[in-house]
Amino acid sequence: SRSFDSPHMRFNIADAHVSALLYAGQVSEARDVADRMRRQAASLPGVAPLLGAAVAGRAALGAGDLETACRLLEQAVEGLSGPHPIGWGYRYRIPYATALAIRGLTDDALAVLAPLAENRREFRLLEYLMRHPGRVYSREQLLDGVWGNDVYVDERTVDVHIGRLRRAINRGRENDPIRTVRGAGYAFDERFGQPA
Known about the structure:
This protein is mostly helical. It is built from 9 helices and 2 strands.
């Protein structure tokens, strides 16, 4: 069960508070709040120090301290993306890429944003399969429907993305909602979520 006292909620509140202060032009106060949160997070277990760095990195970006912003946001993105590939790390990729781009490191910024595009593709793949549960789509149909006709990618790319999608949605589940139909392709199981 989650409560409003949980450490993660504290970071959400601090992050929102820092955002509001930055939007209001109260940059110095935003940095004070973020630095205080970062100091408190340093002694907490788990990902708390990384979340503290992320909030402080956003405040540094808002203050124009790009070197500090890049250092803190890189630390947060790298540390938070591993254990939770579509979680906290993604939340801080955009401010990190923004800081890099402002510093003139546009290639680095694009590299930081690349996983966002790939993850989005997996959700488009899931949405495409769910449009017609039970219908079997060939790899070629999925490539055309999700990637588009004007992009050339190998058919095995579908297999890679299906694998990533399965890892993201099958945590602790017995039944896989995506069926592999040998020699034909993939389908979203029309019985998924229904009582057995």
